Amino acid sequence: MKIGVATIGEIVWVLGIIAWYIIRYPFERRARRRRVVTDRSSPADGIGLASALFGMAILPGFYVASGIPKVADHPVNAWAVAFGTIIFAAALWVFRKSHKELGRNWSITLEIRESHKLVDTGLYARIRHPMYTSFLLMAVGQAFLLANWVAGLAGLVGFAVLFFLRVGKEERMMLEIFGAEYRAYMERTKRIVPYIY
């Protein structure tokens, strides 16, 4: 049985999502063990996370499993799947590295944990939010891997909702906690794309 290019793209996407979860799981377990001292979670935070989950996992997963909406399918090229694979692999590398560098400071929501420190080394020396960078890369990779306008682009929409609902609040919280140290950090770094934004 010959596997088509579109199917290869879908398989790569599924394996990428599984790898994403495998990377995150131990950090999520570890984070639960540390006491939260500041929690700024809000309904908007929940909406952002739900949008990202829907656009980057649920809707594309439904498409891969069912082929719906077939009407939005488009022709796929081997170069697009190869490019999407490289982008998605880069996303997973950034995702793992940013978790590792944050260590016990990481949280899925807007929380400050006990003994929280400002991380400004490694990836964080150039960009303040490399985890969002990884989500952006995943969404771009998804657009190239899935030969469907709706499922492929849903990741970019989900990422945008999460990013614009959360990043400003996250930075205000960090300014409140770390003050001048964080302000100086903001002046020497970009948000998610080195040297650009």
Give the overall shape.
elongated
Distance from first to last alpha carbon:
46 Å
Give the name of the CATH architecture: Up-down Bundle
The CATH top-level class label: Mainly Alpha
- Given as residue ranges, the uncertain stretches (5+ residues, pLDDT < 50) are none
* Content-based structural category: mainly alpha
Number of domains: 1
**Strand order, biggest sheet?**
1-2
Largest sheet data? 2 strands, antiparallel
Helix content range: 55-70%
The CATH topology is given as Four Helix Bundle (Hemerythrin (Met), subunit A)
Instruction: Count helical runs.
Output: 6
Share in β-strands: under 5%
How many strand units?
A: 2
User: What is the CA-based Rg, rounded?
Assistant: 18 Å
What multimeric state do the chains show? single chain
Which whole number gives the mean pLDDT? 91
Order of helices and strands: HEHHEHHH
Q: Overview of this structure, please?
A:
There is one protein chain. This protein has helices spanning 5-32, 43-66, 78-102, 130-145, 149-178, 180-188, and strands at 36-39, 111-113. It has a single domain, classed as Four Helix Bundle (Hemerythrin (Met), subunit A) (Up-down Bundle), CATH 1.20.120. It is mainly alpha-helical. Helix 1 (5-32) packs parallel to helix 3 (78-102), helix 1 (5-32) packs antiparallel against helix 4 and helix 2 runs antiparallel to helix 5. The longest helix has 30 residues, at 149-178.
